[in-house]
Amino acid sequence: MRFTRFIALATVGVSAVIATGLMAAVPSLASPHHLRHTFIGRFHRTRLIASTVPFNGDVNPYGVAVVRHNLGRLRRGNVLVSNFNNKSNLQGTGSTIVQITPHGHRTVFAHIWQSALPRRCPGGIGLTTALVIVHGWVIVGSTPSRDGTVATSGPGCLLVLDNRGRVRELFTGHGINGPWDATAITQGWRGTLFVTNVLNGTKAANGRVVRRGTVLRFRLSFHPGRLPRITNVTRIGSGFFQQSSASAFVIGPTGVGLARCGSLYVADTGENRITVIPHALTRVTSAGTGAIVSQGGFLNGPLGLAIAPNGHVLTVNSGDGRIVETTPRGRQVATKFLDRSGSPPGAGALFGLAVAPHGAGVYYVDDAVNTLRLLF
After folding, report:
1. β-pairing, 190-197 with 179-187?
2. Straight-line distance from the first to the last Cα atom of the chain, in angstroms, rounded to the nearest whole number
3. Residue 117 gets which letter from DSSP?
4. CA dist., res. 292 & res. 15, Å (int)
5. How many CA atoms lie within 13 A of 357 on its CB side?
6. Is 268 exposed, middle or buried (0-12, 13-18, 19+ CB in 10 A)?
7. Residue 340: per-residue pLDDT
8. Which of 10, 227, 243, 376 is buried most deeply by CB count within 10 Å?
9. How far is 255 from 267, CA to CA, in rounded Å?
10. Alpha-helix residue ranges (DSSP H) falling in 195-271
11. What is the pLDDT of residues 76-130, one digit of tens each?
């Protein structure tokens, strides 16, 4: 069992400091009374749940999704994890989703290969952080590469798996180009899926920064005995920072989380900030990159994003192994180190995260050692 170091932050509006054109100061320590109003402030330990490496040796776990209902091979309380790399550690070539129990038993939920698909996924298979469960269907993004680099990448697709781990449908086109992360909600027999995309012009830019990353909203229809289908697609976010990277494959808009009010929070990784797209469920035009919620401070290349039960935004840093809790008003109120491995410590180790059932902690993947862990 590994213990985490806790750092508390004062309720300083970092985004407001940035807006004045001044450098954001490191917030001072908060009082114990204030900590009771944070979500991660109650958690002080981390626990190894299981290795995420399946029989075929896939590594680099990315997506994390908690199973909420028993259905087919999906078991309530278990965690699905998608792998981005194959056993040779080539990015954009991972083809497995594992299912892990809270006690650490791991099984392979799905092993996906191109020849078994209903039709071709452009570029191949490389499973990303875009992993959600909607109405018992598992939807996962594929941002594939032939040799682990963006130079040989394809636009990819969204793969739709049934509750037994079989790919039954896939979505291509509609603006899908490097699906990188996702979140979804259900509304009766309908659902809404939000997906970030990171390959719009990135390949042609050959390492230069391009600002063409998007957030797409998919309206989905679900009916018993039928495959899910897309009824509408709207680009609600655009102009996000994108850049190919030898170490990270691509840097672009990553985690997304929908608040109860209908605002969609986005981890704008390349700009080191969290932005918000208002009226994400109903808007009919793009909000661009949205409004800046928080920038700088303890953010350090935020990747995965989740909404805590108290409405705060949780992000994990690509640069230093921290989780950061930010209020909707932009105040960074708490942070903890989840990983100190690598050089610099914690860099490149964190990606997907999800709140555990009943708010009992935060599940997250540790890419440095290919594990699923729990902050509790």
Report:
1. antiparallel
2. 11
3. S
4. 7
5. 11
6. buried
7. 87
8. 243
9. 5
10. 202-205
11. 999 999 999 999 999 999 999 999 999 999 999 999 999 999 999 999 999 999 9
The whole-number average pLDDT for the span 295-302 is 98
Question: Which residue in 250, 133, 142, 136 sits closest to 193, CA to CA?
Answer: 133
b vs e for 231-263, b when ≥16 Cβ sit within 10 Å of the residue's Cβ?
Answer: eebbebbbbbbbbbeeebbbbbbbbbbbbeeeb
Q: Which two tokens stand for residue 263?
A: 């605002």
Taking alpha carbons only, the member of 90, 88, 82, 89 closest to residue 61 is 82
Let me know: does 306 contact 354? Beta carbons within 8 Å.
Answer: yes
195, amino acid identity? V
The string of pLDDT tens digits covering residues 331-374 is 999 999 999 887 788 999 999 999 999 999 999 999 999 999 99
The amino acid that residue 361 corresponds to is G
Record the pTM: 0.92
Cα–Cα nearest to 189, from 140, 112, 136: 136
